[in-house]
Amino acid sequence: MPLVDLEIIGQGSPQVSDQPVVTARSRGLVACTRCTRVWPMGQDFCSRCGSALVSRHTRSLQRVWAWWAMGLICYVPANIYPMLRTRTLFMTDESTIIGGAVEIARHGSFGVAAIILIASVLIPVGKFIAIAYLALSLRRKVSMSSHARHKLYEVVEFIGRWSMIDVFVVAILSSLVQLSAVASINPGPAAITFALSVIFTMLAALSFDPRMIWDNPEESHP
Amino acid sequence: MVTVSAKIRESSASLVPEAELIACPQCDALYHAVPPRPGERALCTRCHTVLIQPRKGAGLRVIALAVSVMILMLGATFFPFLQVRVAGLHNASSVFDAALAFVDGPMVALSVAVAALIVLIPVLRAFLVVYVLAPVVFDRSPWPGAIAAFRLSETLKPWSMAEIFVIGVAVALVKISDLARVDYGPAFWMFAALVVVITIQDGYMCRWSIWKSLDKEARK
Ligand SMILES: [Zn+2]
Ligand SMILES: [Zn+2]
Question: Which residues surround ligand 2, an ion (CB under 5 A)?
Fold first, then answer.
C-alpha cells in the first residue's frame, strides 16, 4: 500500500478523513515519538535525538496502572483532610476542597466555586475513569472508535495539569495572608496529597502509549 | 480556505529514504515528510496531530521571546505580587513567597515542587531553547549537548505551569475578598505578560524543523 500524503492546511480546521494509513510498524520501522524520525525495527535509540525507541510500549500499561493506583490512593485523603486552615480573631476554620467550594458559592461567587469544583473534583474523577477506560479498551472490544478514544486521550493529557489550580490557591493564600493574630491562612495536609495525586495521574497519562489505541484496524475502519 | 491535499502518493515507502520519512508520534502513521510553506501546517491525516509547522523567521523570534520570558520571570519572582490589607495590617507577597508557603514542617517537598512548576521549569525551558536555537539561527553548528538540552526542554513541557498559577491567583483573590483588601503589585502584570509570551513562543516552535537542524547526519 502506498503512503498517504500529509494533510497541509493554511488557516481553518482539518477535515475528517477515514482513509487507511500506513503505519511505521507495518513497514518494519520504529518511530521516535520525540522527534518523529523513523529507524529500522530493532534499533534501541534514536540516532538523531537520543530517545529510547520502542515500537509499542506494551508493558507501559503496568506503569499506567501503577501511577493510576497511586494517584487514586492520594486522592482519597485529599478530599477528607482540610486543604486550608483559616484563623481570624474570632474563629478558626478548616475547609476541605469541597467545603471550600461550597463556602465560596454561599458568598455568591458561583463562577469561582464552579472553577474549583471542576478543577479539583470533576477533572480528577473524570481522569481516573478515562485513563482506566482507555487502558481497558486496549485489551477488549469497546464500542468507542479509535478516533473518539484518541480525542479522549488528548483531552485527558491537556486538562489534567489544570487540577493543580487548588494547590496554587493554597500556596498563594498561605503566603499572602500572614497577618499575625488578625488573620492567617495555613496549608492543611490535603494540599500535599492532592498535589501528589495530580502528579501521579499526569505520570499515568504520560506513560500511556496512544499508538496502541490505533492498533486494531478492524475497529477503527469498520 | 482549507487546501487539503490528501491524494494518495504513488511513491512507496521503500523508495523514500528513511531520513525523509516522518511518523506520527500519536498514531504511528507514516508519511513522506514534505515541509509545507511557511504559515501552513502539515497534519497527520488520521489523528490531526500537527507534525510540521514552519514559520518565517521563527528562530529569531523564539529566541527573543524566550529571553523576555527569562527577564519577566526575574522581575515577577521577586517584586511584590499581591498585597493584602486587613484592619490596618498589611502584607506583601512575591511569587517566591508563594513558592515557599509550604516550607514549614513536612511540606517542604511541596514548596520545592511549587517553585519548580511555576518558576524554575518555565525559566529553564526558556534558557534551553535559547541554548539550542542560538547557534542554529546563525548557521553555526549546535553547541555541545544541544540535543540533550532540547530533549529535556520537551520532557519538561507538561510540567511548566505558569498559566495555571495565574488562574490560581484569580481564584485566591475571590476566596479572600471578604476577609481582606487585595492590591496587585507590579509582578502580577509581569507574570500575566509572561504567560502570554510563553504561549506565543510555543506557537512559533516547529519541533520537526528544530530536530532536523540538530541532525548530525543531515549537517554533514
Ligand atoms: Zn528521535
Ligand atoms: Zn497521527
Answer: B 24, 26-27, 29, 44, 46-47, 49
Distance CA B71, CA B123 (A): 9
Q: How far is CA B103 from the centre of its chain?
A: 27
User: What total number of domains does chain B contain?
Assistant: 2
Please answer yes or no on whether B5 and A5 come within 8 Å at the CB atom.
Answer: yes
- Residue B163, chain A, CB below 8 Å: the answer is no
CB-CB under 8 Å, A23 with B29: yes
Least Cα separation, residue A112 to chain B (angstroms): 6
Task: Give CA–CA dist B174/B84, Å, rounded.
Answer: 13
The complex's ipTM works out to: 0.86
Which H helix or E strand runs over A71? Answer: helix A60-80
Domain with B45 in it: 2-52
Interchain proximity B5–A36, CB inside 8 Å: no
Asked whether the beta carbons of A116 and A101 are under 8 A apart, the reply is: yes
My answer on whether B9 and B62 are in the same domain is no
One domain for residues B39 and B82: no
Q: Please report, as a single letter, which amino acid is at residue B73.
A: M
Q: Note whether B135 and B34 are same-domain residues.
A: no
B126 shares its domain with B150: yes
pTM for this model (two decimals): 0.88
Residue B94 CA to residue A172 CA, distance in Å, equals 9
Domain residue extents for chain A = 2-40, 60-214
Q: Is B1 on the interface with A (CB under 8 A)?
A: yes
Are A6 and B9 spatial neighbours (Cβ–Cβ below 8 Å)? no
- Would you give per-residue pLDDT tens digits along chain B (220 residues)? 333 333 334 344 456 788 889 999 999 999 988 888 888 889 898 888 999 998 888 899 999 999 999 999 998 888 888 888 877 778 888 888 777 777 776 678 888 888 899 999 999 999 999 999 999 888 888 899 999 999 999 999 999 999 999 889 888 888 787 777 888 888 889 999 999 999 999 989 999 999 998 987 666 5
Which of 3.40.1000, 1.20.140, 3.40.30, 1.10.10 would CATH assign to domain A60-214? 1.20.140
Chain A within 8 Å of B106 (Cβ-Cβ)?
yes
Q: Are residues B123 and B215 in the same domain?
A: yes
Nearest ligand to the C-alpha atom of residue B212: 1
- Cα of B24 vs centre of ligand 1, distance in Å, is 12
Q: How many Å apart are CA B69 and CA B193, to the nearest integer?
A: 9
Given an 8 Å threshold on Cβ–Cβ distance, is B101 in contact with A174?
A: yes
CB contact under 8 A, A192 and B102: yes
Query: Most A CBs within 10 Å: which of B9, B30, B128, as the mutation test of the A interface?
Result: B30
